[in-house]
Design a protein that fits this description.
Blueprint lengths: L1 E5 L7 E5 L2 E7 L2 E6 L3 E7 L5 E7 L2 E3 L3 E7 L5 E7 L2 E3 L3 E6 L7 E7 L2 E3 L4 E6 L1 E7 L2 E5 L2 E6 L3 E10 L9 E3 L7 E8 L1
Parallel strand pairs: 1-4, 2-5, 3-6, 4-7, 5-8, 6-9, 7-10, 8-11, 9-12, 10-13, 11-14, 12-15, 13-16, 14-17, 15-18, 16-18, 17-19, 18-20
């Protein structure tokens, strides 16, 4: 399936959007946002909504604000998320997962075998998620940080990170102080 997102000024500026459900599967989808659309695969859980079981597999996004965007509001829950075998090109942020500052309302997230190329800001930005595993991912030529983690109980392993030319290697992976219980293993970082 191919989706072309076009910024139309009405707020409906995303390729694919979900806000509620169980066992959602997004498989083998390509979303082109190069004409100004915001988010490729957009999970916005607010109001009374919740999501239990989300699989995003073998998807490709081009351009836009975020290739894959998963956000939740105050008391909404998103559980059991798997993102695998995805390719994200030229987005502002490749993958953004953010439960907000108030609670760990997104839990049990696994990201594996994903490739993120040429992010304008951060390749992978994970905030306030409980129980995160990132493995065998490649984040290449991000303009600011390759991977940014603001969450505890994380296991990040077997990843390759390179920042754009002129960006220092210490920005390859950023771990916030709140992430003290995170484990990072077997990284290759180039700048």
């Amino acid at each position: 399936r191919f989706y072309k997102g076009v910024h139309n000024g009405s707020g409906a500026d995303n390729g694919i959007t979900f806000a509620n459900g169980k066992n959602i599967v997004v498989d083998s989808v390509t979303v082109d946002m190069t004409e100004g659309a915001f988010r490729g695969i957009d999970i916005q859980c607010d109001g009374e909504n919740s999501i239990d079981g989300l699989i995003i597999n073998n998807c490709t996004t081009y351009g836009g604000e975020n290739g894959i965007d998963i956000l939740t509001g105050n008391n909404n829950k998103i559980r059991n998320v798997t993102i695998s075998n995805c390719n994200i090109y030229n987005a502002y942020q490749g993958i953004l997962i953010n439960a907000g500052y108030n609670a760990l309302t997104i839990d049990n997230v696994t990201i594996s075998n994903c490739n993120i190329y040429n992010s304008e800001w951060i390749g992978m930005d994970i905030r306030y998620v409980k129980d995160l595993i990132v493995s065998k991912c490649r984040v290449q030529d991000s303009q600011n940080r390759g991977i940014s983690i603001y969450t505890s109980n994380s296991n990040i392993k077997d990843c390759f990170v390179s920042c754009a030319e002129g960006i220092t290697a210490e920005k390859g992976v950023y771990i916030n102080d709140d992430s003290a219980t995170s484990q990072i293993n077997l990284f290759t970082i180039f700048s």
